[in-house]
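Sample A.
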Amino acid sequence: MVFSNDLMPRNGDQFYPFRQNSSFFYLTGIEQPNTILLLSGDNEEGDVLFLEEPSATSLVWEGEKLTSDKASELSAIENIKSTQLFNEVLSNRFKQIKTVCFDLPEELTHSLTPSKTVRYYKSLKEKFPFHSVKSVHADLVSLRLSKEPEEIELIRHAIHVTGEAFLKAAKKIQPGLNEKEIEAILTYEFAVNHTNGHAYDPIVASGLNACTLHYIKNNAKMKSGELLLMDFGAEYKNYASDISRTLPVNGTFSTRQRELYQAVLDVMDKAIEALIPGRTVAEVNRQATGWLIEKHIELGLYTKFDLEARGKALWKSYFPHGVSHFIGLDVHDCGTKNQKLEPGMILSCEPGLYIPEEETGIRIEDDILIGHEKPENLSAGIPKTRGEIEQLMR
């Protein structure tokens, strides 16, 4: 049994924009709430997709919902029933079936808002205590990790729109503007290009703000001499992109900023080459961290003696995050750091350098497709060298 996401209350009688459970969307293509997928394997009664039946009131206030024919066309499931019949159908199935599979997380947390899957799992354990329960989460992760050609094309398009938005925003950056004005340009470009909007809360962080990894206030006035870190990405048909670029607010890197920026870019180039089949994210992280530590010492942030004395606590203060994560239907997609890379997987590559005492944060991030022999940088067309960025801003 796989469940759609809930509508999440915002305030009063308003809800946040609906975003489908990624695994449910992956299996069905359905983006409607209050929907359930029942897969029965070789059972003669077959698979069923349960849809909410529209009422006269919902048609007036919310508009049309999926018809059975349209839902069947999207999901390739022929047997479509009303969600109201779910418990009745399930009770009949349980007379023959003794094992039930859910897409359960590896750990069941005590969240104040447990998912519909977790709620139904707990309810089922009370009503049918002698049925066996298994999780198919690992199976769904395995399916979603390597992208089909159609999925790769959707991500390519999300990256293309992200790149176009970056070009528009970069040309507007100047001292005195507010970070929110740059965010607005990105949001506008995502909207007019018919995407779902931002794949995650965008980060538009100038000066010291860039040293806060998930800074999303985006409301400070940008000053000459500062760097502006932008971490953003469009979501297209539920598939994410994830790009970071760092630019000089006044259009020209200072001598020190050039040194710092080039250090990050040098590590990034080597880290991208390391994303090949058979490696793991953990291995690439360790390797990239070693390269960054060498750069830290070259840049005079600390000495080898300091490093021997303080170790991880020292270098991690300048690079507190990993260099890569999986990308797909979720911007931080399923997959672990110890997963061996295979062709068709898409990951970020995002080394960074954060120096609060210099009020400077730099992160450069591209989206990388694992190939059979060498990786393909899907976002290679988005300017990122110092010369490209200064030329763009001129």
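Sample B, a different protein:
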Amino acid sequence: MPVKKNIVKLNIQTREFSDTVAGAIKESNGFSVESGQNSSEPDLLIHELTENWEKDLEQIQAYIETFDHTEVFIVSENSDPQVLIHALRVDGVKEFLPAPLDEAAINQALDRFLERQGKKQQKTTGHLGQIISLISSKGGVGTTTIAVNLADSLKRKPNGFTVALMDMNMVFGDIPMFLNISPKHHWGDITRNIDRLDEFYLSNVLTRTAGGLDVLASPGYLEKQANLPTPQVIITLLELMKKKYDYIVIDLGQSMNDSALQIIKMSNRVEIVTIQTLPCLSNASRVIKSLLENGYTDQANLYLILNRYIKKGIVNLQTVEQGLNQKISLLIPNDYSTTMSAINSGQTLQESAPKSSIARCYNDYADSLLPEGTEKRKKKGWFF
């Protein structure tokens, strides 16, 4: 993995100040000055105060509200104590560097920045690192619904597990709508900035829900220059996430490109989602055969989820298992009205209908994934 470079944005008008700061950054390891074309969030903003310093501080505050993980250093010819006090009251301002500027003082400030970043990263401890991938046998079988509600149910366990939810639909993923969130970032930001990827940058790209679930969204629109993740990007990303999270739930949709196949290779569980219709079951059979015969996963890691289960459906359970040569690991009951009510309100089933049979099903589903020795629900629910 490439060495991470902290991106610095310079907003300095005085040439002498600019040269001094740039010289200090060049001497210090771990920093790179942002190019004019780069509009992504910097790690550090170094801003010069003008004579209208109060307006400058207002602009800095507005900037931090947009880029809330950016630290700010202030450079100023005005060393009046009142200016210093007002500057350090602005959230995100960590250093005040008065003129005349000294490269040694700037380097010390940069060292303190690196120390703060290191402490943030050290908060990450060892985790289970279980990757659970869900694959659609056909569009519209409910894979996103299952991924969202599984991740939410895992996060609600009293054991304090850390859970991430990834939307790997290449574009127009629905997870933000299901959770009523508006992500600022998506996995395209990681692809564009893979050399910056560490625990701190990853935390910045993820969106945390009110319930503490971390979401890595897919792009919400079609970009002219798509930044599709390569298999190597996937390896780097998931290896990092395994160190940070107990469970990483991934909605793959129907993706079967090189990146999706790399995710499947790294997954502890590969869940094929289907329903009781012949076209879906036929597709599920082809997916299972392709994954096993090409060595992307093995039988021990492959699971079959039958969604929207109808007991008296045209295709019964025995026919499904015989036709797919695969045991059904989970039945999810057909409760269309409860599920759609949750989706339309931007809530999970545990939020909107916690006592419903389908919410209990997801709760039991999450229980089945917990480590041995973890307290679990006694009821088996819809499991086999």
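Observation for Sample B: The radius of gyration is 25 Å.
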